[in-house]
Amino acid sequence: MGALPLARFTVLDLCHARAGPTAVRQLADWGAKVIKVEPPAALSRDVIDSRREGFDFQNLHRNKRSLSLNLKTEEGLRVFLKLVERADVVVENFRSSVKYRLGVDYESLKQVNPRLVYGSISGFGQTGPYAKRPGVDQIAQGMGGLMSITGLPGQGPVRVGIPIDDLCAGLLLAQAILMALIDRERTGVGQWVHTSLLEAQIFMLDFQAARWLISGEVAGQAGNDHPTGIPTGLFPTADGQINIAASGANLWQRFCEAADARHLLEDPDYATGPRRSKNRAALNAKIAEITKTRPSAYWIELLNEVGVPCGPLYTIDRVFADPQVEHLEMARPVDHPRLGAIKVVGQAINMTATPEPEKPRATPDLGEHTAEVLEELGYGRAEIEDWRARGIV
């Protein structure tokens, strides 16, 4: 196996919470040399109240080294700027004013290293009337329209069950950083790339946003039914529930033939996509009467055999017990010095020449690599110990 794709890049991680760490995790998992710069223990506070040895922190911060450094001190900032001289990327998700107050904003750092790619995530953007507002995932879900289309019709707004805006913003920032690194090969200089939770959420509205922008339609809640592709939804079986996606003329015909429901093909109420959409509730009820006569496994095998997408409804424990998920190795083993053998969530990207390592490196303790990183910069042990005594590292 060759070196990982990002092995030649050094990344300084100033992030907290989730969106920024998600971006950095993408870089770290694919080989970037990441130094997580954190306040010393006396000043450290995780804003999402996640214990360092808890599942969330361990999953977010693997494959990094940790340097404890007080950026509010003259010596601490000087050390950081020395790191910047050698770095390719800095990633931060401070509130907009904080980076300027600390002197670690892009304009300041590019004077030290013009080749630097500087990545930022905020709640609402780096400029504009809301730029200084604090932003978190749920606020963006509501403001970005997602909660208005999630849930059962008439239920009222519902939050999505994962921090989707944090995750999407992080993935988009990682992509922007990689594009900037590629562009640097042409220009020889870095740039500032940034996104926000709000922008990521609106981007992820995708066809529902286009539905409004182009057709003037304001989407509502559709529950477990697909908003436009009918029939697609959750249906009862003799022993549970399954998802079926039989929208479009071909899939609809295959479903009806496989389910011995040819009479539905002959019903004018369901003859076309628009007719099936208009009569959605009645059609779903008729399909439910059919599917509940057999167990889930029967329908999953039958419908997939004829090319109609159909799948089970899993709780998360059953997700990781599924043979396909096990084959995809989405649970990756980690050896932690105190927690022992644990597992973290694997990457969803597959590369044939440079596959994801079998075992990620465990999330580091706070400041675990402080002496190691500082010695690489040329500082001596006596100076490091002095700084440690004074709370600089």
Brief account:
This protein has 18 helices and eleven strands. Helices cover 41% and strands 14% of the residues.
SSE map:
Elements: E1 10-13, H1 19-29, E2 33-38, H2 55-60, E3 65-68, H3 74-86, E4 89-92, H4 96-102, H5 106-112, E5 117-122, H6 137-143, H7 164-187, E6 192-196, H8 197-205, H9 207-215, E7 232-236, E8 241-245, H10 249-258, H11 262-265, H12 273-278, H13 280-291, H14 296-305, E9 310-312, H15 316-319, H16 323-328, E10 331-336, E11 340-345, H17 370-376, H18 381-389
Parallel strand pairs: 1-2, 1-4, 2-3, 4-5, 5-6
Antiparallel strand pairs: 7-8, 8-9, 10-11
Helix pairs in contact: 1-7, 7-8
Comma- or semicolon-separated keywords:
393 residues; Rossmann fold; 41% helix; formyl-coa transferase, domain 3; alpha/beta; three-stranded antiparallel β-sheet
What report would you give on this structure?
With 393 residues, this protein is an alpha/beta fold. It has 2 domains: 10-204 and 328-389, Crotonobetainyl-coa:carnitine coa-transferase, domain 1 (Rossmann fold, 3-Layer(aba) Sandwich); 232-313, formyl-coa transferase, domain 3 (2-Layer Sandwich). Helices cover 41% and strands 14% of the residues. The protein contains 18 helices and 11 strands. A 6-stranded parallel β-sheet has the order 3-2-1-4-5-6, with helices on both faces. It has a 3-stranded antiparallel β-sheet with strand order 7-8-9, covered by helices on one side. A two-stranded antiparallel ribbon has the order 10-11. Strand 10 (331-336) and strand 11 form a beta hairpin. Helix 1 packs across helix 7 and helix 7 crosses helix 8. It starts with 9 loop residues before the first strand and ends with a helix. The model has no long low-confidence stretch (mean pLDDT 96).
